[in-house]
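ATP synthase subunit a
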Amino acid sequence: MGEFFPDAILFGGTPFEFNRVQLVRLVILVAVLVFMCIVASRAKLVPGRLQSVVEILIDFVNTQIIGNTIGLREGRRFAPMLITMFFFIFAMNLGGVIPGLNLAGTSVVGLPLLLALWTFVTYVGAGIRKHGFLGYIKSETMPPGIPWPIYFLLVPIELLQVVLIRWASLTIRLLANMVSGHMMIVVFIGMTHALLFSGEWLIAISPFAGAMAIGIYGFEIFVAALQAFIFTMLTAVYIQLATADEH
């Protein structure tokens, strides 16, 4: 657990403290920006391998996330945000399986919380622009066709969901998955090491623990992509709910 709370590298004890977690995030951010700039600067009409991968991922976000929730026409103005969010979360999640980094940038609460609040501000702002403040609150908390006494129970629940539960659940889901994945990798690698150097008959089962560690690595790559997809998809869903004419 101490890996999530490392010692300061610079400015220890101040609000500007810089530690290994920030260093990992900075390295990943710079790497993604450099990679995307290189791909964009070398873009061709007939794409190469790297350009094809990037275009496939962008098209995936456009069609499977934006197209299936907001719609391609209405979602066009949110596409830059959602595509950036997907790539950013995916890259930060992959930090946990990159040798030398060994820590997902989203495995400490600050970054998942910041992303969730970005989502919150975006869908609330979009809803207010579309309906006005009171109109937005009404559209989110008072769906039509329900007997009016039910609203006494429904309105507080829906209001709590809009202002707290949505962004809190986004934060907790992303954070919990990245922390648990990191802990699983550490446990199986530690188990492999302990069995391998046990000096007893237990050394015979160390390959099985090692195979499990490799399997967890592969599973973590899948989870990194899945969590990026889920976070981005839910963001698009919340924007769609905020801007819809009627629920």
